Amino acid sequence: MTDVRLRIDGIHKTYPPRGRRDSGTEVLRDITLDVYDGEFLTIVGPSGAGKTTLLRTVAGLLEATSGQVLLDGKQIDGPPREIALVFQDYSRSLYPWMSVAKNIALPLKAHGVDRAEIDKRVEASLYNVGLAGVGERYPWQLSGGMQQRVAIARAIAYRPEVMILDEPFASVDAQTRNDLEDLLLRVKEQMNSTFVFVTHDVDEAVYLSDRVAILSKTPSRIEKIIDIDLPKERSQLETRALPAFSKHRAEIFGTIRNLVTPTDQGPLPEYII
Ligand SMILES: Nc1ncnc2c1ncn2[C@@H]1O[C@H](COP(=O)(O)OP(=O)(O)OP(=O)(O)O)[C@@H](O)[C@H]1O
Predict the structure, then answer these.
(1) Does 47 sit in the ligand 1 pocket, CB within 6 Å?
(2) Does residue 59 register a pLDDT over 90?
(3) Which stretches make up the ABC transporter domain (predicted)?
(4) Which domains does the chain show, CATH number per domain?
(5) Is the Cβ atom of 16 under 6 angstroms away from ligand 1?
(6) What is the position in ligand 1's atom list of the atom closest to the CA of 25?
(7) Cα distance between residue 165 and residue 68, in whole Å
(8) What's the pTM?
(9) In this predicted complex, what is the ipTM?
């Protein structure tokens, strides 16, 4: 795991002013980070630290103010075809007027994959996410967890080198969330892709990752990178009960807590009791 797949090199992002009295919002200040081939890297940090901003920049959806992102040594200047994205809001990422199969096929069609190959990949990816046979249904006929599986199936079918996921499980119930976490680990095993993941859930970060990068408060830098020292094979019950799991969890919580002091919100207003 030593080849660098993605190099995030001195990224700085300031959103432009939104009015005459606004001087712009500096969100990212000098983010430098290598993501290695085949690893699962999770980014955590205080609320509003710029995690989504960073992911969107890495995915080529947002232009950095300065700095660059390199994929296999080549500068990213728009959404590269080697990257697939999964967002939190599956209801907006799937087209409700298209069947599940058509939703999955869409990016493949756009990249000129032939009909027979598309059919094969749609079927295989639905099977991989445990949704064999639902291709003809529409997204709105499925539960939230099933819709997020479809979004993951679409990403898998695309066979990306890099998968970028922004809080993909934030809107599903706890049991579904655990199932989807395990699904993602199985997918990673099969696809050998590189994963860049954002979550608010520290336990989820430890459970899934090879490394966890903690962002500081805005304007953010990388505060700390933690190597997750857990057996490769993860299990919801056994892995989470390991002493090393608690140690990593405590280190990440402690680091984030030290970044966010109660005084960040200013003095307590009188009307709060
Ligand atoms: N388009 C925009 N224009 C101006 N400011 C923005 C824009 N998008 C985000 N911001 C600001 O940038 C900061 C970081 O937002 P971002 O969503 O990247 O953080 P985050 O760490 O993902 O947040 P959260 O933890 O709440 O998910 C916030 O202060 C936000 O208000």
Answers:
(1) yes
(2) yes
(3) 6-242
(4) 1-77+201-263 (3.40.50.300)
(5) no
(6) 5
(7) 20
(8) 0.90
(9) 0.97
